[in-house]
Amino acid sequence: MSNHEQHETAHRPVQRKEMSRRQFLSYTLGGTTAFMMGGAVLPMVRFAVDPLLEKKGEGTYVKVVEESKITNEPQEFKFKIHQIDGWYVSDPELAAWISKDANGKIFALSPVCKHLGCTIGWNTKGQNEYDCPCHDARYTKDGKNITVAPNPLDEYEVKLENGFVYLGPVMPNTRTS
Ligand code: FES
């Protein structure tokens, strides 16, 4: 290196890679915004997902009627269930047709027709059968499908306790297989 070049190098200002004011502001504001968004969004995500992770109250029975009121003739009883579906809580009213069989055993049938879901009634045509008003499906007292519907009426799980009939979840008919 010549003397002239050495002299120039000595007087050239050192070039540092410094952050510009604009970059500094971008990083600072970006970081702060991300931090604040995280604080706001995370609780919302948790609120949305939490109920889905909770266990549903399975196997819950509802007290419906005194055992002494049940006869061989099917009768309709209404009852409410407390339902939690994710974050949606409701108390829908359900119905069941409850009767005793020839052995005195109490059983309960769902009123939902297995054809397209209309509500059946007992003995509306004087034939001691369940009838559906929509397309004339008919079922025996045990819920066995006679015409139109492809399957028997569903049954409720039944529990007898302290002289009362309790109903649980709906299950496929056990009396007609
Ligand atoms: S819905 Fe009951 S017969 Fe069609």
UniProtKB/TrEMBL annotation:
Annotated Gene3D superfamilies: Rieske [2Fe-2S] iron-sulphur domain (2.102.10.10)
Q: Which residues cross the membrane?
A: 24-45
Tree of life domain: Bacteria
InterPro entries referenced in this protein's UniProt entry, alphabetically: Rieske_2Fe-2S (IPR017941), Rieske_2Fe-2S_sf (IPR036922), Rieske_Fe-S_prot (IPR014349), TAT_signal (IPR006311)
> What are the record keywords, sorted?
2Fe-2S, Disulfide bond, Electron transport, Iron, Iron-sulfur, Membrane, Metal-binding, Oxidoreductase, Transmembrane, Transmembrane helix, Transport
A matching Pfam family: Rieske
Looking at the record, the residues that make up the Rieske domain are 98-167
Instruction: List, in alphabetical order, the Gene Ontology terms for molecular function in this entry.
Output: 2 iron, 2 sulfur cluster binding; metal ion binding; monooxygenase activity; oxidoreductase activity, acting on paired donors, with incorporation or reduction of molecular oxygen
Q: What does this protein do?
A: Component of the menaquinol:cytochrome c reductase complex. The Rieske protein is a high potential 2Fe-2S protein.
The record describes its quaternary structure and partners as: The main subunits of the menaquinol:cytochrome c complex are a Rieske-type iron-sulfur protein (QcrA), a cytochrome b (QcrB) and a cytochrome c (QcrC).
Q: Which PANTHER family match?
A: CYTOCHROME B-C1 COMPLEX SUBUNIT RIESKE, MITOCHONDRIAL (PTHR10134)
Question: Could you say which protein family the record assigns here?
Answer: Belongs to the Rieske iron-sulfur protein family.
Question: What is the name of the protein in this document?
Answer: Menaquinol:cytochrome c reductase iron-sulfur subunit
Tell me which species this is from: Paenibacillus endophyticus
